[in-house]
Amino acid sequence: MAYLNSPPFEESDFPVFTAIRQQFGFLPNFYPAQVARPDLVDAEIKLMESILFHESALSRKQIEYIFLTCSAANLSTYCVTAHCEIVRLLGIQGPEPEQIAIDHVHSRISLADKALLNFCAKLNLQRSRIDGSDVDALRTFGFNDQQILEAIVTVGFAQFANTVAFGLGTVPDFRNAKVEGALGYKHGSKAESADGRIPAVTS
Fold this sequence. Notes:
- The chain is mainly α.
- The protein has helices at 15-24, 38-53, 60-73, 77-89, 97-103, 111-125, 132-140, 145-168, 177-183.
- It has one domain: AhpD-like, CATH 1.20.1290.10.
- The protein contains nine helices and no strands.
- Helix 3 packs antiparallel against helix 4 and helix 3 (60-73) crosses helix 8.
């Protein structure tokens, strides 16, 4: 399911995997692909919990939208398909998550959230062009400094997750034709099974 050969493992040896299943409803391929370094898995999950699961100034919807927008811009089919599914599993109300990922500008979301995603999209791909005026613009939409900080960190986390997923060659946990078509994902990589089906993660 990935480019690297991970050692055999028992899911019971990774209690954090149980917590992920409880939160997401599934265990993303992203984590079992890294079991050769359990300490890295633990550190990444702690960071993820701090950003996604703890009480925050931004809503969970806003954080997921930032992750989707940045991951799509980075052409990370793995992360986009996973978080589209997570948005549905969480019952987050709003436009289809694929719409947010592919074209948030024309999505039916508030002007404030569009401004937030525009800022994050710029930080994601044009980070050297960010200046104080971009932050001030967010403040005019009512975002406070804690919310802006969380947005910045979420962009960084998305970039980290996208890069690791690309390097590992993790196969998407779910098939999503709309995302695959928009991001140019092609099946038939060595990480997939011979018949082209994406294998499920088993303990």
